[in-house]
Write a structure and sequence with these properties.
Length: about 350
């Protein structure tokens, strides 16, 4: 996976300028099984594996989440008033309307997060150089499309766009504002070095992110974090400006410097909350991958990723949270990882049975 979310065949040759020899060594076999619509599938779609998730539209989820967080904002405002925070600030010469400030911060905090969500597919394609497969040129690209089609059907979502991006690292990501309007992309390194079963498990993990609505959920969580970072940074800025530096005419330079510094510090600390939430979603995506591709295949893919931990991960930060692999960090740095350690993920799947 940041927040987050590699070609086979002739498209790969045109993109990265390498020989086609490696394509011949990648053993993908297509079993021509037809579904009810006459499309080829790799495996028979005898049963569907729906990912448990709330049965509401994406826009309804956004509205419900915004309503919930509006309630949080109102409760925070009432709590500050009950504890006399407004009076304390006024007594120290800080004339600040906390209700208006909260609304202001909520509008801008959520606006940035939601705009990023709605343009996430475009940004992902631009930042990674992902090439979308519209018409497969080789049997390998055909296999990739058919596998994603099968997994999407089993997960109960519409077929996402499928792409491959030029990277040596073994990685993949999913992004998009809606589970039925998503993008799933895999790296060239993943396709070159992983077995078909391992690639399918990685794709199943990414389809799990899409089916679980993780892109929307994390965007909304980020909006909440943005709101309160902006809110408390401006309170701190006003307090320093009025109480310590005794500015009387409007907001002095101390306000702006302090606010910027406070936003940086609070934003850094708050990112640990977002990353904690992201790690929880990774376990859910692994579980979804196990449901769709099989537990053994999902464990095998994670073990294969573990063997490549020395390979640098160059995924853009905005997509790291929705990749299959975010690299390796230890100690306190682990608090800011978007993914749990691979050992923990493998152990969780083994306990699942």
């Amino acid at each position: 996976m940041p927040s987050g979310a590699g070609h086979l065949g002739s498209a790969a040759v045109q993109l990265v300028g390498i020989t086609i020899d490696y394509v011949k060594t990648t053993q993908f076999e297509i079993v021509p099984v037809l579904n009810s619509s006459g499309h080829h599938l790799i495996y028979p779609a005898s049963s569907y594996i729906f990912i448990p998730e709330e049965n509401v539209s994406t826009m309804m989820r956004i509205l419900l989440f915004l309503a919930t967080n509006l309630a949080v904002v109102l409760i925070a405002s009432i709590t500050l008033s009950l504890f006399g925070f407004n009076g304390f600030m006024a007594a120290n010469g800080v004339d600040l309307n906390l209700n208006q400030l909260l609304v202001f911060c909520a509008v801008f905090g959520f606006a940035g997060s939601l705009i990023s969500l709605f343009i996430s597919k475009w940004m992902a394609k631009m930042s990674t150089g992902t090439q979308i497969i519209t018409q497969p040129r080789t049997r390998h690209e055909q296999w990739l499309l058919q596998t994603v089609e099968q997994l999407s059907r089993d997960a109960g979502i519409k077929m996402p766009e499928v792409g491959i991006f030029p990277a040596y690292e073994a990685n993949a990501f999913a992004t998009g504002w809606n589970k039925n309007d998503a993008l799933v992309a895999v790296s060239q390194g993943l396709l070159e070095r992983f077995s078909p079963d391992e690639v399918k498990a990685v794709l199943a993990h990414e389809i799990g992110h899409v089916a679980n609505g993780d892109m929307v959920t994390l965007a909304l969580v980020q909006g909440v974090v943005n709101t309160f970072v902006m809110f408390f940074a401006r309170i701190i800025g006003n307090f320093v400006d009025k109480v310590i530096f005794k500015s009387e005419n409007g907001q002095g330079i101390a306000y702006y410097i302090t606010t910027i510094f406070a936003e940086l510090v609070l934003g850094f600390l708050a990112s640990a909350i977002v990353m904690w939430f992201s790690r929880k979603r990774e376990f859910r995506a692994d579980d979804a991958g196990a449901r769709l591709a099989g537990t053994d295949a999902m464990i095998g893919a994670l073990q294969r990723l573990r063997s490549e931990q020395g390979v640098p991960v160059n995924m853009p930060d905005s997509l790291t949270a929705f990749g299959i692999n975010s690299g390796l960090k230890k100690g306190l740095a682990g608090l800011f990882m978007s993914h749990p350690p691979l050992e923990q993920r493998i152990e969780a799947l083994r306990r699942r049975g």
